[in-house]
């Protein structure tokens, strides 16, 4: 059973930074592409970053490109998201997920979620 525990969210001011973490278990972490996904209030799920198995390639949504960095530690089975230059529109619940369908066409179909998410709130 996929288990993913997100942490590191909180309240931050415009322009600030946060680092999210995701502890993975229940699957062979290093074999999977991993992703961060967010859901803003009243909106649908949006994938924002993907890192391939091995960590050699990363992909970002245009909304976060140049500001967020996804990384992974395959020894610790951990996924990270460094978020810089945060904006109020980044306010959302952030989830990590493993990628079962690539490229991602449908978030609910192509990703496995296993956690409760972590809330990020950016004040203006």
What does this structure look like?
3% of the residues lie in helices and 50% in strands. The strands form two sheets. Strands 2, 4, 5, 6, 9, 10 and 11 form a seven-stranded mixed β-sheet that branches. The chain has 124 residues and is mainly β. The radius of gyration is 13 Å and the shape is globular. The mean pLDDT is 95.
Taking Cα atoms only, what radius of gyration do you get, to the nearest Å? Answer: 13 Å
Structural class: mainly beta
Q: Hey, roughly how much beta strand do the residues contain?
A: over 45%
How many strand units? 11
Determine the N-to-C terminus distance.
39 Å
**What average pLDDT do the residues reach?**
95
Task: Give a quick summary of the entry.
By secondary structure, the chain is mostly beta strands. Helix content is 3%, strand content 50%. The model has no long low-confidence stretch (mean pLDDT 95).
